[in-house]
UniProtKB/TrEMBL annotation, chain B:
Protein origin, superkingdom: Bacteria
Subunit-level organization: The complex comprises the extracytoplasmic solute receptor protein and the two transmembrane proteins.
Subcellular location: Cell inner membrane
GO molecular function: transmembrane transporter activity
Record-annotated membrane-spanning stretches: 43-65, 86-119, 131-154, 166-187, 219-245, 266-288, 308-339, 351-375, 387-408
Pfam families from the UniProt entry: DctM (PF06808)
Name of the molecule in the record: TRAP transporter large permease protein
Species this protein is from: Woeseia oceani
Record family assignment: Belongs to the TRAP transporter large permease family.
Purpose of the protein: Part of the tripartite ATP-independent periplasmic (TRAP) transport system.
GO cellular component: plasma membrane
Topology of this chain in the membrane: Multi-pass membrane protein
TrEMBL record, chain C:
Main location: membrane
Highest classification ranks of the organism: Bacteria, Pseudomonadati, Pseudomonadota, Gammaproteobacteria, Woeseiales
Alphabetized UniProt keyword annotations: Cell inner membrane, Cell membrane, Membrane, Transmembrane, Transmembrane helix, Transport
Source organism of this protein record: Woeseia oceani
Pfam family, one: DctQ
Protein name listed in UniProt: TRAP transporter small permease protein
Domain Tripartite ATP-independent periplasmic transporters DctQ component: 31-158
One Gene Ontology term of the molecular function aspect: transmembrane transporter activity
Length: 335, 416, 174
């Protein structure tokens, strides 16, 4: 008796992700003596994420790989690490995630999904066709907005930028034709999707923290015996942990690769982006208060972040998020 | 198997194609144990396809143009520009039709709108009747490879290939077809080489002035897209609104009362195409689930080994396909299946698109099912067999051009 | 046929066509204006609305389905149209009867399956356009297939009547 678990992913067939998944599927098949078979659909052949979620609803598929924004409507709190301009370094995120990952993962229970940990995709950084070293360099330029990403939309609105909403699949053309000038994307993703071939400049500004995860419907997993389910859980959790551990190095390598193929590195001007950070702090708070995600969770994340920064001897003022004095005076409109 | 054969029979006896495709998709789902609701998800997928709004908008613009006096103005303008050459009117016909088809989406509108003007004019100018019939019938789908033709856009959407790349790639192959047909026309009428009229700056000026409202259109469409000001779908919206304002408000060639009818007529074609697209998403989805592309690939790799022989096989396949299927259905049904195979042979997907469309263009002229043949037979009240015969030499010329386009990939890729 | 039902059918037909036309005019006009408005907003005011793209796409879906209903009314769906061109009209009746009946059945099945899906997404509370219930936007799918099924059923009955009439006319001559 074989149970097939069908999982859709946007990862291309010949990607690192797919070879990990295939190896995992093989291990699961062997350890369950053929009772559990993971079948992967790579390269987005099952459609975009919202289509995949619908197919999981009717049982045509059983799982998929996702980003937090795919669950924006059902599980808005999941976007908490991905709020713009919150974290500055990978170490900061790692510290905070150590406290909060479990709480976030448990949120999937009531959605009827099982997850196996989060894998970092690194920071989305700025890639552009005109050099971006200050806030003024962003103004009036056409900035890519991932289609349906409400949080980034609110952020761009607060910064008075001009968003152009496009699905991932159309960004390459958009860059080529000048429909968009600026994107923010992790180097790893830019390389995989070849976007680096259509931009000239890269600004190493940590815009937001990106991560991905796999979700499989409980209904599908409930068909397995407890032991088999444990095997699936072990293997997939291990894969995600391995990728997560390697992500910092992967990001570094991807960035080197980008600079090696001739993208020009642009230094962010001193202090310039602290203003943006301040506006974003206010905006993030504002979004939470409007109910877009939980205020408590935001408070908790920022408390951990403050702790980390104090421990590591950063100036408290720089990272203080409750400092209304700083955020209150910063307003793009008054510039 | 028996049920699949039944579906083919139903298609041949004239069941709507979308129903046949939906039937086969649901049959597939049923066999795989997938809930039939899945087909609703795929049909809803129409609402997640980028650039799709370009299709209703460009189609509407094309229908508006053909209902106005734009076709007459276009013939006058090309006549003024090209009519001085020997065999002038034949060249005028080819150029005007190619230009018009690009805008009206190769839906047969060209034959109705331009053929009605050109066919009698050609006869009056002393060209043999069979030649005229063949020329007008063939011209109905000429220009398919020029932006912003509907099949180009549809291929871009279905294959997820950059539509601007396709627009660029179609230029030289389209010109090649035009040049070869022009050469043939001149050769056939070498005895009748009188020009339409001598070149007159005044006539050119008059014709230009008369077309002043339509002249900016190519600039809006192509300039807008290439400058990066608009995406294809945005260029379509601007084109449609512009044509609407010009023909209805400024030139008043189409009355407000007639507008709903033009909208409906144009949307009948769009509805027919998009519903097939919707159910084809489901049948493709089922075929991917059942691993059909892989099986197809292993069959093909057993048959042929080199890219050149793959292309030959592809051409034969497309000729057969084009004999029975219209271009729109062929794109949405077949492209998702041959795309992965072609990529295994290292065929550029933009070049593949041009080859696909060029070969399917022949389908407009091949029996038993050829849209242009039917429309010409109906419009000019000629028996269908007469139209077949008259069109045959043109079909051969086009086949030759398709061979060149297929094996000379630089022709497509040079302008990318 | 008694006059009353025929008159009623005739009136339904006229209303149906008018409703289709009105919907197509509104949707196509809206699509044009909204898309052009978005370009103007972007180029001249550096602004835009995040829901416009999704709305445009939903409008294309509605256009596609309503135009499909219209195409089934006018017999304009794409077909492999060999018979009507090569067979005498009378001989083509029986295959046409079968083809229309098949289309009616498939559309009925499509209507039923998409109704089930819309119901499910209602239960799940899916949303589109930020916070509009998805079932509102998606309900056009079962409605359209339902109406198309009705159209094909009518034209199947029409073919049947013509077939019977042709046979009645033919038999006394023998
Ligand atoms: Na797509
Ligand atoms: Na044909």
């Amino acid at each position: 008796q074989t149970t097939q678990i069908k999982i859709a992913t946007l990862a291309p067939e010949n990607s690192q992700w797919m070879s990990e998944f295939r190896a995992g599927a093989k291990e699961i098949r062997e350890r369950t003596e053929g009772r559990v078979q993971l079948k992967f659909y790579s390269g987005g052949v099952q459609g975009n994420e919202s289509k995949v979620l619908r197919k999981i609803q009717i049982g045509q598929l059983h799982g998929g790989t996702f980003a937090p924004t795919d669950f924006q409507k059902r599980f808005p709190d999941l976007n908490i690490y991905g709020l713009p301009f919150v974290f500055k370094t990978a170490d900061e995120v790692a510290y905070v995630r150590g406290f909060m990952d479990e709480k976030l993962a448990s949120g999937f229970d009531k959605l009827g999904f099982d997850t196996f940990g989060f894998a970092s995709g690194g920071f989305a950084i700025v890639m552009s066709n005109t050099p971006v070293s200050s806030y003024d360099d962003l103004k009036g330029k056409k900035v890519w907005l991932p289609e349906g990403d409400l949080i980034s939309y609110e952020a761009m609105k607060a910064l008075q930028l001009s968003p152009v909403a496009l699905p991932m699949t159309d960004v390459l053309t958009g860059l080529q034709t000048g429909l968009i000038d600026i994107v923010a994307i992790p180097p790893v993703v830019a390389l995989a999707l070849q976007w680096h071939t259509k931009v000239k400049f890269v600004t190493q500004l940590p815009v937001l923290y990106a991560m991905g995860f796999m979700a499989i419907s409980d209904r599908a997993l409930a068909k397995l015996s407890a032991d088999d389910r444990q095997v699936v859980d072990d293997v997939l959790t291990r894969i995600y942990a391995t990728v997560d551990d390697a992500s910092a190095a992967d990001s570094e390598n991807a960035l080197d690769a980008l600079l090696n193929v001739g993208l020009e590195n642009v230094e962010p001007r001193d202090g310039e982006f602290e203003k943006i950070r301040a506006i974003m702090r206010e905006n993030n708070r504002d979004m939470a208060e409007r109910g877009m995600f939980s205020t408590e969770l935001l408070d908790e994340m920022q408390q951990h972040l403050r702790d980390y920064r104090e421990k590591n001897g950063e100036a408290a003022g720089m990272s203080s998020d409750s400092s209304t004095e700083e955020s209150g005076t910063a307003s793009i409109g008054s510039r | 198997m028996a049920l699949s054969v039944l579906l083919v029979i139903l298609a041949v006896i004239g069941a709507p194609l979308f129903a046949v495709i939906a039937g086969s998709a649901m049959l597939g789902y049923y066999r795989e144990g997938i809930d039939l609701m899945a087909i609703a998800i795929e049909v809803l997928g129409i609402a997640s396809m980028p650039f799709l709004s370009a299709i209703p908008l460009f189609t509407f613009a094309g229908y508006l143009l053909s209902e106005s006096n734009a076709p007459r103005r276009l013939v006058r303008l090309t006549g003024a520009l090209l009519g001085w050459m020997p065999g002038g009117l034949a060249l005028v016909s080819l150029a005007a039709c190619a230009f018009f088809t690009a805008f009206t989406g190769a839906s047969g509108v060209t034959i109705i709108a331009l053929g009605a003007i050109l066919y009698p004019a050609l006869r009056q100018d002393g060209y043999p009747d069979n030649f005229n019939l063949g020329l007008v019938t063939t011209s109905g789908s000429l220009g398919l490879l020029f932006a912003p033709s509907l099949p180009l856009i549809l291929y871009g959407i279905v294959a997820e290939v950059s539509i601007d790349d396709l627009f660029r790639a179609g230029v030289l192959p389209g010109l090649l077809m035009l040049a070869m047909l022009s050469g043939w026309s001149l050769w056939v009428n070498r005895a009748n080489r009188k020009p339409l009229a001598s070149f007159s700056m005044k006539e050119v000026g008059g014709a230009l002035w008369e077309s002043k409202w339509e002249l900016p259109l190519p600039v809006v469409v192509l300039g807008g897209i290439y400058s990066g000001y608009f995406a294809v779908s945005e260029a379509a919206a601007i084109t449609a609104l512009y044509v609407l304002i010009v023909e209805v408000l400024i030139l008043r060639e189409i009355s407000f009362g007639k507008l709903p009818e033009v909208m409906r007529e144009s949307m009948l074609l769009v509805g027919g195409i998009l519903i097939i697209l919707g159910v084809s998403l489901a049948s493709t989805n089922y075929m991917i689930d059942a691993g059909v592309p892989q099986k197809l690939l292993s069959i093909v790799t057993e048959l042929v080994s080199s890219p050149a022989s793959f292309l030959a096989l592809l051409l034969v396949f497309l000729l057969v396909l084009g004999a029975i299927l219209d271009i729109f259905s062929a794109i949405v049904l077949v492209v998702p299946l041959i795309l992965p195979i072609a990529s295994q042979y290292g065929i550029n997907e933009v070049h593949l698109g041009i080859v696909f469309l060029a070969a399917m263009q022949l389908g407009y002229l091949t029996p038993p099912v050829g849209l242009n043949l039917f429309i010409a037979s109906y419009r000019f009240e000629k028996p269908i067999m007469t139209v077949y015969a008259a069109t045959f030499p043109f079909l051969l010329i086009l086949m030759l051009s398709v061979l060149i386009i297929t094996y000379w990939s630089d022709l497509s890729l040079l302008l990318l | 046929m008694p006059d009353r039902p025929r008159a009623l059918l005739g009136r339904l037909e006229r209303w149906g066509t008018a409703a289709e036309n009105a919907a197509l005019v509104l949707l196509l006009g809206g699509l044009m204006l909204l898309a052009v408005g978005q370009i103007i907003m972007r180029i001249f005011f550096s602004a835009g609305f995040v829901w416009v793209d999704e709305l445009l796409k939903l409008m294309v879906l509605w256009i596609a389905l309503i135009a499909s209903i219209a195409a089934s009314r006018s017999g304009r769906h794409l077909r492999i149209d060999v018979l009507s061109h090569f067979m005498p009209k009378r001989l083509a009746r029986l295959p046409m009867f079968i083809a229309e009946g098949f289309a009616a059945g498939i559309c009925g099945l499509l209507a039923w399956q998409s109704f089930r899906f819309v119901q499910l997404s209602h239960e799940f509370g899916d949303t589109v356009l930020v916070d509009t219930p998805a079932w509102v936007a998606h309900s056009i799918v079962p409605i359209a297939f339902g109406l198309m099924s009705y159209r094909f059923l009518l034209s199947m009955l029409h073919e049947a009547l013509q077939l019977i009439r042709a046979m009645l006319v033919a038999s006394p001559q023998q």
